Amino acid sequence: MGISARKAQRRSGAGARIVTLTLSPALDIATQVARLCADAKLRCSTPVYAPGGGGINVARAIHALGGSALALFPAGGSSGQHLVELLEAEGVASQVLAIADWTRECFNVVEQASAQQYRFIMPGARLAADEQVQLLAALQALPADYLVISGSLPEGLADDLLPRLLRDAARRGVRCILDSSGEALRQALDVGGIFMIKPNLNELNTLVGGEIGSPQQLASAARQLVRDGRCQTLLVSLGAQGALLVREGLSERIAAPTVRRRSTVGAGDSLVAAVTLKLAAGADWLEAARYGVAAGSAAIMAEGSGLCRREDTEQLYAWLQAYAGD
């Protein structure tokens, strides 16, 4: 496959160069089954394939919202080739690093009887030591104003890869936005000064080492991370409750509009995509955060693993803007 760049024409809505990085991409497979039963042969509906992985989905959502981003990711095997072809068919620009290990496949199964959704997440493909070096070099060679790092870390990744990546981006003046959990989030906060992180409430609980039981405790914990210099901006996603935006001199709770829930897959990625796109276009933080909440809510309205639709996002954003003005 080689390192291949697929160029996409710069589209309206993007005022700065956005690159997304996905260290554990996936070929997502969505299907439905009448009922889940142990040991039985379960007849599934025709599967729907989609490119997956946090940064890839952010780039796809930016594209859906009328912007442009370059998705950088490793891929291998026929599953990796399928992922690349699907992404290319959507018109999303990508730069792909060929790796020996096969790209993982993940499954999203809806049980029709209960309308419950089951997500089966496979481990990410391993990156050999030389592949990690190549990925870092490829990223350093890319011009970017915003770098969105989203998704989990694969096993076997060098302990210093993410910190090196973040420090190098900071030296080049690139604004880094991180949407990850566990070790990746801890490493980023240890580096300090990250432009923005987007944890959910559970991830923030883990960071502070306790249960956050009230809105006041939530705001206090977020402000402390900013005061300590561990990040410049914190956007805590709260699901149906919206999001909390905290940075120096600003703490704002943004309520989410009430929508019909079909799937939560891609809501967080859509939120990050919309925030990044608005910031890149010169919007202020409150406008960007409201647009993000609108996009996250729009993704919830989509079937299966669908991301936000531009029309839905714009309508919900207009409502949030009007609501904020009341």
From TrEMBL:
Protein name per the record: Phosphofructokinase
Arranged from A to Z, the UniProt key words for this protein are:
ATP-binding, Kinase, Nucleotide-binding, Transferase
Among Gene3D superfamilies, the record links this protein to: 3.40.1190.20
Instruction: State the organism named in the record.
Output: Pseudomonas zhanjiangensis
Record InterPro entries: Carboh/pur_kinase_PfkB_CS (IPR002173), PfkB_dom (IPR011611), Ribokinase-like (IPR029056), Tagatose/fructose_Pkinase (IPR017583)
Q: Which domain of life is it from?
A: Bacteria
Q: Which residues form the Carbohydrate kinase PfkB domain?
A: 38-308
Asked if the Swiss-Prot or TrEMBL record annotates the protein with the keyword Nucleotide-binding, the reply is yes
Family of the protein in this entry? Belongs to the carbohydrate kinase PfkB family.
